[in-house]
Design a protein that fits this description.
Blueprint: H1 26-34, H2 41-48
Length: about 60
């Protein structure tokens, strides 16, 4: 039995400039935002960066 997918994994920004798996580059973020309707870009960009929910509300850390 493989339990690899049940363990919590913490991906942090690495000082060497490496990206975490699945992390978007600045260029990828800009390309995706450019394809979004102009009225929603601000919320979508914030969502891609992990700063906002898709409805535009800021993500608040409870920790």
């Amino acid at each position: 039995m493989n339990d690899d997918d049940t363990e919590a994994v913490d991906f942090a920004a690495r000082p060497t400039g490496e990206r975490a798996p699945g992390e978007l580059t600045e260029r990828e973020i800009q390309e995706l935002v450019a394809r979004c309707p102009e009225q929603q870009r601000w919320a979508f960009e914030g969502w891609l960066r992990g700063e906002r929910l898709l409805d535009g509300d800021p993500i608040v850390s409870l920790g």
